[in-house]
Amino acid sequence: MRWTTAKIRQSFLDFFAERGHTIVPSASLIPKGDPTLLFVNAGMVQFKDYFLGVRTPSHLRVVDIQKCLRISGKHNDLEAVGRDTYHHTFFEMLGNWSFGDYYKEEAIRWHW
């Protein structure tokens, strides 16, 4: 079996969907309603209001593959892009999220 990037993405989503996670789409690279960011630079950005207690999530468990862009701030990779094999500005972050439903014990076991 050949592991393509599409197969890796789908396998990740399927694994967590089988464990009660709702698959949510990637948010836009330009955050809506968040003047603190120019671009989504981490997989948790679309859930920021949940972590801050501003909004209540509609699902306690979600899984996503978030498109991210890093070019400035503490992740200042712009000068290093193209000079080595690990500085990139665009990537996808695979994430599984629990909003108070499970904690480290389950997450560590699943990721192991």
Q: Can you walk through the features of this model?
A:
Strand 1, helix 2 (48-52) and strand 2 form a beta-alpha-beta unit. The model has no long low-confidence stretch (mean pLDDT 87). It is built from 3 helices and 3 strands, in the order αβαββα. The protein has a 3-stranded mixed sheet with strand order 1-2-3, with helices on one face. By secondary structure, it is of the alpha+beta class. It has helices spanning 5-17, 48-52, 104-111, and strands at residues 22-23, 61-69, 90-98.
Q: What does the radius of gyration come to?
A: 16 Å
Low-confidence runs (pLDDT<50, min 5 residues)? Answer: none
Listing every helix as H and every strand as E from the N terminus to the C terminus, the arrangement reads HEHEEH
Let me know the largest β-sheet. 3 strands, mixed
Biggest sheet strand order reads 1-2-3
Strand residue content:
15-25%
- Between the first and last Cα atoms, what is the distance in angstroms? 22 Å
Structural topology:
Layout: H1 5-17, E1 22-23, H2 48-52, E2 61-69, E3 90-98, H3 104-111
Notable traits:
about 110 residues; 3 helices; alpha+beta; single chain; globular; three-stranded mixed β-sheet
In brief:
The protein is an alpha+beta fold and 112 residues long.
